Amino acid sequence: MKSDQLTITGFSKLSKKEKINWVADNFHSDPQKMKEMLASCCHSDEVQQKVLDGFSENTLSNFPMPYSIAPNFIINGLPYAVPMVIEESSVVAAASASAKYWKERGGFTSTVINTIKIGQIHLTCDQDEAIINKFFEDNKLSLQKSCSDHLVNMEKRGGGLLKSELISFPEEEDYYQIRMSFETCDSMGANFINSVLETFAKALLDLHQSTYGDRSRLQVVMCILSNYTPDSIVRSEVSCRIEELGQTANLSAVQFAYKFEKAIRIAQIDLYRATTHNKGIYNGIDAVVLATGNDFRAIESCGHTYACRDGQYRSLSHCSIEDGIFKFWLEIPMSLGTVGGLTKLHPLAKISLDILGQPSAKELMQITAAVGLAQNFGAVRSLISTGIQKGHMKMHLSNVLHQLKATEKEFKMAIDHFKDKIVSHRAVREFLDVLRKVDPAITKR
Ligand code: MEV
Hints:
Elements: H1 16-27, H2 31-40, H3 46-53, E1 67-75, E2 78-85, H4 91-103, E3 109-112, E4 116-125, H5 129-145, H6 148-156, E5 160-168, E6 175-183, H7 190-212, E7 218-226, E8 233-241, H8 253-269, H9 271-291, H10 296-307, E9 317-322, E10 325-333, H11 347-355, H12 361-384, H13 389-403, H14 408-417, H15 425-438
Helix pairs in contact: 1-2, 4-12, 8-9, 9-10, 9-12, 13-14
The structure holds (R)-mevalonate (MEV).
């Protein structure tokens, strides 16, 4: 088939049914099966489906992901059951196990250190640096006033624009940046920040033109918030006396503490390990961020930038052993909201916030950081003791058995059989083949 037959103009204008037909007929070997599958994942309530469709463009259906709970978190002395959306086997199990483990040792202490968000107006200007600097400083306040329509509500809530500064970059001729700092309270603040930036930039251009009479001398390249928020930091920590760590598999408390500390130090100095290590942290963080309708891409990109702020990518978590105390902590930038965006629109995000007791954005940062730390603790604990595959393979076995449509009886027999054997798709299929050959009726039980 020619490639122009497989492209289309005006796709977005088609009805949902027409879109599905076009994709199914042109891109799927079994159009009917595809249509049935898409239909089966749609919300049974048309109103709810319309809400979901409103989040994106060209929607055909929904993509279901498991919605889970990690219970037993004690954070700042309060109990939480934390909603998590993640598809990876054993992440929720690890978070829950760590939560329970630390519940018995005083729980997590989380603190929000600051909550400043950044927006940037990127400019070019061919005037002398001293002239543009003076122009900016002389007019900064009136330019900020031009944004008051956007600022007034945020100021009522205790936030607003905190600071704007003009920065030059010697390495890029004519390039300047207006960097603005914001407090956005319980909202993530992306729309608010971007609106302020665009209004400020327009007022700046108008004022510059009326002052110098030539529009081409100062130009706005772009206005956008920065997802890097190194001044919006949350810290979460667990600690106990070494002997309270107890026995972990074949490791005594002391052996565990020092092996764990070594593992964290390795992730501090080696970027290959650091990447996987931090991925484990984001297994937990992303899952909570998704479950609460926040932007996991923003949170991740920010964290990874922060992880290499001194020039080398390093672990985001730290461990110390001093005076017999084992301490493990995470200090991480995070920009979360509990109002605005999807937080109240997505039906399950709303439920997640209910389950968490309608937290403020700061409380959500504290909870999310604790889950990231729990996840990291669980992963490293397994890695240095039993190895990760034991837990993973249990979940993998269950996934493969589901895929092969194993019955309850087959499930039980397979779990018993693979207790001490390597799980692979092929090995499980062969095991079921033998079972089904010996006893064909087993597929009914
Ligand atoms: C797997 O999703 C995450 C881990 O690789 C994290 C780690 O290695 O620390 C287990």
